[in-house]
Design a protein that fits this description.
The complex is a heterodimer of chains A (376) and B (370). Chain A is α/β, with parallel strands linked by helices and 376 residues long. Chain A is built from 17 helices and 7 strands. In chain A, the strands form 2 sheets. Chain A has a 5-stranded parallel β-sheet, sandwiched between helices. By secondary structure, chain B is of the alpha+beta class. Chain B folds into 3 domains: 112 residues, DNA Polymerase III, subunit A, domain 2 (DNA Polymerase III, Chain A, domain 2); 109 residues, DNA Polymerase III, subunit A, domain 2 (DNA Polymerase III, Chain A, domain 2); 111 residues, DNA Polymerase III, subunit A, domain 2 (DNA Polymerase III, Chain A, domain 2, Roll). In chain B, the strands form 4 sheets. Chain B has an 8-stranded antiparallel β-sheet. In chain B, strand 19 and strand 20 form a beta hairpin. Classes of the chains: A alpha/beta (376), B alpha+beta (370). At the A-B interface, helix 4, helix 5 and helix 6 of A face loops of B.
Chain lengths: 376, 370
């Protein structure tokens, strides 16, 4: 539980939750939002434990569950009768039996690794069958002193009938019940749900903390732990996913290349260059080509989307969300043209057997300069 | 923990306990049972969080303790064993089941992981006749709603008023109400809404015997104490709608008809009813009841006439055939009485042998198709 102290109980979000608990002013619905894998899940689970802990501790004016009483043990093991969890499942598997199977699978994943990403299927939906069962069970009276928590993971995946079925529960939550919604962005939810929830942003994790976690909780090398914690944009889940499939999965490599591309826009020039260097020192020449080819396609996708705002124009649909996000930096097609040309020249240089590190260093500097000049 | 008991004794109780164990759950511990070895008896408990059951079984306890193991695996093993003494011995992570010619080992879970079961305080217990309770359950629970947007209607309203005990269930389209007298309830006034799932277990547990059942009305739970088996259920939050308001006062338009004849005729004509509404048209005229249906999808029509005892004006009504037959199935008599007033008002159904106050069903009419 040491990671809870560092990654959860010291966060600004936990401060707000602890403050609400202290003042006995908890909301009936919370919306914890932020990047998947940044600790939204653990904040929700720890908050459930705080409500039901038999021996709440106060450390530096911040309340936290003891982590060792029967209730805490069962809550952190995701085996607590008053904690109901709903996760998105493939839409055609909405029958209660199937919904339970998928939910169990997700719960097992989260039990083994609370930061793990639950993004196996592209199209998923919150199962209405399970949501209805939970609604029925909340209509039953319960033992006094126990706070029931209903956790909806990836709430943005709740659509149509499921959202309608839950709206009344969110509008008029049963007594002693807290609903926790977890989503990437608040504006992906129905306005009626947003307006009834207290929104709390779960911040991205610091790369140093992530690196420490990766080294303590897995068999990552110092080098990989350092690299993945830097390029995963504050998402420990993302870093773990990259680490788990490192070296044996083409999709994983694409994801890493895409993260490196994104870091051009988010991080300082020096950071980007050092991250690229760290990754590619382990790689051969063909992988550098693969990375630059992907970057070219991403630039084209971002440029197209920036102009058309049409999702159908995106070729690399597996990075659709990232592309749409980066498109915010492109105020015209000019930046895309400049970047595409720069990458093209570097590819040509590499064809002529130019030194990889040197070529990439030059490329990184040029791209950063182009992005900066557009931003200014 | 170590104990021994004959296979048949354990198997009988396991059958009961298993009725509460969910086949699947997002909380895997619920597919386990909790076994507690106490002084000369063991307790086997299961819960689906809404309903909990504890069976107390006399046996030889060699060492006290508790553990939790998967219910269905244990049941399947015990079911297939020949009759003999079986002994159970638990270590920290496994339970070993020893039989004369072999042994089985099952992984166990710490009892602390099993949900807390509600406490039973027998001081507040009242006794009621098991057969009365089973009868009330079987006559009412069919009318409960399944619509989660109106949770109170998902349960049976159980009222105790003076020395009367009453059960009501409705889904808004039909209603069933039954009351029995019970002198032991004298002075007790209480209203609780009980999930039908737990009520429907009672007749299975008491069988044909007329033994008394202890009932404890708790703040959040209702407890059924059947001596060796204790069944607990959470109550549904109210309030229950004012059902008295929808039951019309006695009407002089009464139709008396053979229950079996009507039930069979409804079944037949409903084959050609609308597949969504199951509407059957009842036409009452001069001691005759005509049932008719039309189904535009298959281009079919059905019509049958029955003799009945009816002296009122001509009346046309539409009813859902499934609801009519559900109600007729609950009537223990050769004839039934329909009390009617108009084509848009609720109809009341009861038998000549049981006063309307003791058992009646209400059915809402459907708007007749043009």
């Amino acid at each position: 539980m040491n990671h809870l102290d560092k990654l959860i109980y010291t966060s600004k979000a936990w401060n707000i939750l602890s403050g609400a608990y202290k003042q006995k002013k908890t909301s009936s619905t919370y919306l914890l939002y932020g990047k998947e894998g940044s600790g939204r899940w653990l904040h929700a689970i720890a908050f459930t434990a705080l409500f039901n802990c038999e021996d709440v501790k106060e450390v530096d004016s911040v309340f936290r569950p003891c982590g060792s009483c029967r209730n805490c043990m069962n809550i952190f093991n995701l085996n607590f009768d008053a904690l109901k969890i709903v996760v998105p499942i493939p839409p055609h598997e909405n029958k209660l039996d199937k919904a339970i199977d998928f939910t169990l699978e997700a719960i097992q994943t989260k039990k083994a690794e609370p930061f793990a990403l639950l993004t196996s299927a592209k199209t998923t939906n919150i199962p209405i069958s399970l949501a209805r069962e939970i609604k029925k069970s909340l209509a039953l009276r319960h033992d006094k002193g126990q706070i029931r928590v209903v956790l909806f993971y990836k709430m943005e995946q709740m659509r149509g009938a499921s959202a309608d079925a839950l709206l009344k529960m969110i509008e008029e939550p049963p007594e002693d019940t807290v609903i926790i919604l977890i989503a990437d962005k608040p504006d992906s939810l129905l306005p009626t749900i947003q307006s009834r929830s207290q929104k709390i942003k779960i911040p991205r994790l610091a790369s140093e903390d992530m690196k420490e976690y990766l080294l303590e909780n897995g068999d990552a090398t110092e080098h990989l732990a350092s690299l993945f914690s830097k390029i995963s944009e504050g998402s420990l889940g993302q870093a773990i996913a990259m680490l788990e499939s490192h070296g044996d999965d083409e999709n994983n490599q694409r994801a890493i290349f895409c993260m490196l591309f994104k870091s051009l826009f988010h991080d300082s020039g020096a950071d980007t260059l050092s991250q690229m260097n760290e990754y590619l020192t382990l790689r051969d020449r063909s992988e550098t080509f693969a990375m630059l080819n992907l970057w070219q396609m991403l630039v084209r996708d971002v440029g197209n989307f920036a102009v058309t705002r049409d999702e159908n124009e995106i070729f690399n649909i597996d990075f659709s969300a990232d592309i749409q996000q980066i498109a915010g930096y492109f105020h015209s097609s000019e930046l895309a043209l400049q970047m595409a040309e720069t990458i093209k020249i570097t590819l040509a240089d590499l064809e002529r057997n130019v030194h990889i590190q040197g070529a990439l260093m030059a490329l990184g500097l040029k791209l950063k300069a182009q992005i900066s000049s557009m931003q200014n | 923990m170590k104990f021994a008991l004959p296979k048949s004794r354990l198997f009988n109780y396991l059958q009961h306990v298993l009725q509460v164990v969910p086949s699947k759950s997002t909380l895997p511990i619920l597919t386990n049972i909790l076994i507690e070895a106490l002084d000369n008896k063991i307790k086997i408990s299961a819960t689906d969080l809404d309903i909990s059951i504890t069976a107390s079984i006399d046996c030889t306890v060699i060492k006290k303790g508790s553990t939790s193991i998967p219910a269905r695996i244990l049941f399947d093993i015990i079911k297939e064993l020949p009759e003999s003494d079986i002994s159970f011995e638990a270590t920290s992570s496994r339970v070993e089941i020893k039989i004369p010619n072999g042994s089985y080992k099952i992984a166990s879970v710490a009892p602390d992981e099993f949900p807390k079961l509600p406490a039973v305080n027998t001081k507040k217990e009242i006794k009621i006749s098991g057969s009365d309770l089973a009868k009330m359950v079987s006559k009412t629970t069919f009318a409960c709603s399944d619509d989660e947007t109106r949770p109170a209607l998902n349960g049976v309203l159980w009222q105790t008023k003076g020395d009367k005990m009453l059960m009501v269930a409705t889904d808004g389209h039909r209603l069933a109400k039954m009351s029995v007298e019970n002198k032991k309830l004298k002075g007790l006034y209480d209203d609780v809404i009980v999930p039908p799932k737990v009520l429907n277990l009672i007749p299975k547990f008491i069988g044909d015997t007329d033994k008394e059942i202890g009932i404890i009305f708790g703040e959040n739970n209702i407890i059924f104490n059947m001596d060796d088996i204790v069944l607990t259920s959470r109550l549904i939050d109210g309030p229950y709608p004012n059902f008295e308001q929808v039951i019309p006062a006695s009407s002089d338009k009464k139709m008396r008809v053979s229950k079996d004849d009507l039930s069979r005729a409804v079944k037949r004509v409903s084959i050609l009813s609308n597949s969504l509404t199951h509407q059957v048209k009842f036409t009452l005229k001069d001691a005759s009841l005509t049932l008719s249906t039309t189904n535009a999808d298959v281009g079919g029509e059905g019509k049958e006439s029955l003799e009945c005892d009816y002296n009122g004006d001509e009346l046309e009504l539409g009813y859902n055939a499934i609801y009519v037959n559900d109600i007729l199935n609950k009537m223990d008599a050769d004839e039934v009485i329909f009390e009617l007033s108009s084509s848009v008002a609720a109809g009341i159904i009861y038998t000549p042998s049981t006063p309307r106050e003791d058992f009646l069903c209400l059915i809402m009419p459907l708007r007749l198709a043009d």
